[in-house]
């Protein structure tokens, strides 16, 4: 997943460079390439959104499986040492306000591994903490509209970018040479 994010970031940097440099140099070729890249990225975003909506149950299952692997890795580590599993688990716990998976080990984890779960004021709040599996399910079922709204906002911004790049490209073509 990290390599995909790095590749997408590099492509976005290249596309942004094409747009900025094309606008500064008033180059129709660079602005046309910028527009074409935006259309391709827009199509990929729409395809990924549709795929994600259709396969949301599978994605939630994969996220829970990833969490379980990180949780096991964090449990195997010593309390003093730091590892990737512990960092991932702590991020899940702090973001979703949960602690542990849906099994017995997850239920008693706050009592013997205080370094993994968010700090609670009283012992009653420790037992009120819900499992991360339940919180992940709630995120993908109840909060799916927030992900959709973010995707729509990004899509609208990309549409404006495409419109403005074409307006600039046509304006360069129709402008008189000094």
TrEMBL record:
Its main location: membrane. CDD domains: CD81_like_LEL (cd03151). The chain crosses the membrane at residues 5-24, 30-54, 144-168. One of its GO terms (biological process) is regulation of cell population proliferation. Pfam families: Tetraspanin. It is found in: Basolateral cell membrane; Membrane. InterPro entries: Tetraspanin/Peripherin, Tetraspanin_animals, Tetraspanin_CS, Tetraspanin_EC2_sf. GO terms for molecular function: lipid binding. Belongs to the tetraspanin (TM4SF) family. This is Tetraspanin. It comes from Buceros rhinoceros silvestris.
């Amino acid at each position: 997943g990290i390599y995909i994010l790095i590749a997408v970031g590099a492509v976005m940097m290249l596309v942004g460079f094409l747009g900025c440099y094309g606008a500064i140099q008033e180059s129709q070729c660079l602005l046309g390439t910028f527009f074409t890249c935006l259309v391709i990225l827009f199509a990929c975003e729409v395809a990924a959104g549709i795929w994600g909506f259709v396969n949301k149950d599978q994605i939630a299952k994969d996220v829970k499986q990833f969490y379980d692997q990180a949780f096991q890795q964090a449990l195997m580590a010593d309390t003093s040492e730091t590892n990737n599993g512990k960092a991932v688990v702590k991020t899940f716990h702090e973001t979703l306000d949960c602690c542990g998976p849906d099994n017995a080990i997850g239920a008693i984890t706050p009592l013997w591994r205080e370094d993994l779960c968010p700090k609670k004021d009283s012992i009653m709040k420790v037992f009120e903490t819900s499992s991360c599996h339940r919180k992940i399910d709630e995120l993908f079922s109840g909060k799916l509209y927030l992900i959709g709204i973010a995707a729509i906002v990004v899509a609208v911004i990309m549409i404006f970018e495409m419109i403005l790049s074409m307006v600039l490209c046509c304006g360069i073509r129709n402008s008189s040479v000094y």
